[in-house]
């Protein structure tokens, strides 16, 4: 009973902090105000022009425009209504996430109370990037909603309407951000019958995905590429070697609390089985990245991307001052990140797809920001791995994640309001 009341207290604090942040226009991710200028430009663009008349050169986003099409269809161009619209989307994300956890509890016969699952789902509200996207009317949260709706309908039951709904929302997730292609692959592999490739359901699956994704070809044709002209100006798609250790370090940052609670025997068995890969990967990382990390990197600007660990290693490191030693430290951390990705990918096909798609997409991006992975990794690790772990103590999981994400939120607020500004 004490545990229940303690979690209720923590939940009240989480929701209170979220509502206070909403009214104070909190900018804990640091880019809210700048990104809002681009978002509002797009909103006005869709308000003033018919869809067929839009000049895509003036479209200031790197994503497909489902967010703005919905706003245009609903006719909510007033900023106050838009803020309320984004707030509803954000709470809908929590609601659907909670219902997914309940479905997985029943499916995997887990001994966990629903109020604990509700508490865990509420932790998304502590994400600096989720909060900033909500408070500054940004695009990201609607993608989380579509992704979770797709997973929800896939898990709910094997009815025709759920089958179609899951595919439909997977495609809408892609229309919110191209990097959500992993949702399409996860849903495709979930439904595809590999034992009978000529099964009627496989045929319907391919047809539905093809029909729902055909409109994306219009945008790619208009843009002469996979991203809009505005984004293409400074986001030339080419392989960036230095991005890989940054991706590894960011992933490690979000996987740490799960690793802390991981079954130690599983980890030891993983090390035993993968010991050759573990050793070779360390040498490969040093060989590939030691010379490629330079002070001329775009990330070597405290205000630009790179993630928290990069900034802590190179900008806020008061212990190790030598740049070469900082590089060694960062590569070692990135190596641990690579091993963490390898471990969780080996535990779940869905996580393998997720990490693989993100590595492919963001290894070609000009700049990687921490927000690309938060709260995405947190949500997917819970859905595709921890909710199948019958040994997991979910109360401990909540407390560790709550402390971890609260520390991240407070640190972000201090960093962006005191150091950057």
Compact description:
The chain has 421 residues and is mainly alpha-helical.
Task: Write out key terms for the chains shown.
421 residues; mainly alpha
Structure in words:
The protein is an all-alpha fold. Helix content is 70%, strand content 0%. The chain has 19 helices and no strands.
Give the low-pLDDT segments: none
Tally of alpha and pi helices: 19
Mean pLDDT: 90
Kindly estimate the percentage of residues that lie in beta strands according to DSSP.
under 5%
Strand and helix layout:
Blueprint (H helix, E strand, L loop, with lengths): L1 H23 L7 H17 L17 H9 L4 H30 L5 H9 L5 H8 L4 H17 L3 H17 L4 H11 L8 H24 L5 H4 L10 H19 L2 H10 L1 H15 L17 H8 L8 H25 L1 H14 L13 H9 L9 H27 L1
Helix pairs in contact: 1-5, 2-3, 4-5, 4-6, 4-7, 5-19, 7-8, 7-9, 8-9, 8-10, 9-17, 12-15, 12-16, 14-16, 15-16, 16-17
